[in-house]
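ok trying this again, last paste got cut off
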Amino acid sequence: MDINSSNKTYSGLVSQISETYKSGQKKALQVVNTTLVETYWKIGQHIVEFELKGADRATYGNKLIETLAKDLFLEHGKGFSRSNLNYMRLIYTYYPIYQTVSGKLGWSHYVELLSIDNPVERLFYEKKCIQENWSIRELKRQKSASLYLRLAMSKDKEAMLKSIEQEKRAFRPEDIVRDSYVLDFLKIPEPNQYTETELEQRIIDNLQQFLLELGKGFAFVGRQYRISIGNRHFYVDLVFYHRILKCFVLIDLKKEQAGHQDIGQMNMYLGYFELEENTEGDNPPIGIVLAKDKDDLLIKYATHNISSQLFVSKYQLYLPDEGELRSVVEAQLNLI
């Protein structure tokens, strides 16, 4: 068959295969996510049952979590901080029957929910997450805005909910920033050693595809945009302007995991742009630290009480295949 002579049919086939592939990936990632929550719930169960029945529990006392964090870190690496172990303990404490844990919510959702002491308020936000398909950012935003308390105190709850829906439809910074970006069009094979400069150059060479990956409304301003403070010079990797939000968008590229120092540096860039680069009509700039990996708990602590316009996102150099997804599931199962 001449592929070119039946381009319409062939294009339809490519589109159909692509949609099926993306749908399969989404389902596979959901399985990974569900497995992770279940794994952490079971770890929490082990901790609580040891506290209640362990023969040598008195030896550890209040230092059990601290001791576990040290020993498990030595054996498994990251993922077993005292904070994370406390959350694992809490998810079992608050949800002692696993069937009450929703498969529609990820671990990051539960970390936010477990920080709520009031069980009625926690249940309210949990149900809203499921009903409205809230992202982590939307859950954090509604918690910060005290949606539960506002609704509880409102005489006209229906009118207030309509007002909240209108707020959600407004275009906000979090609407243009995703948790993860796929940069497979850069054609950087993995495993491969590359520098941040090389990563930046590949993005510039494939700027059109990168703009499509970023989404609607982005306009390229420049690369290695110089910031001068006194006699010191700093350079923002990529600068864009968002024509809908009417603000600069600064992107700093990191080929490894994002660190707290990267967040501090981006916060400085945002301050400089707002005070020195913004002109009349410009809104506060948005900063994105785009890294190969990130630790959500570290990011949570590092961004505490600083600009809400600062985001940390991950990038992938390729789409994960079935084997990689399976290995992630198996790795999580091995923790049980």
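PB: full thing came through this time. Confidence is low (pLDDT under 50) at residues 1-7, 332-336.
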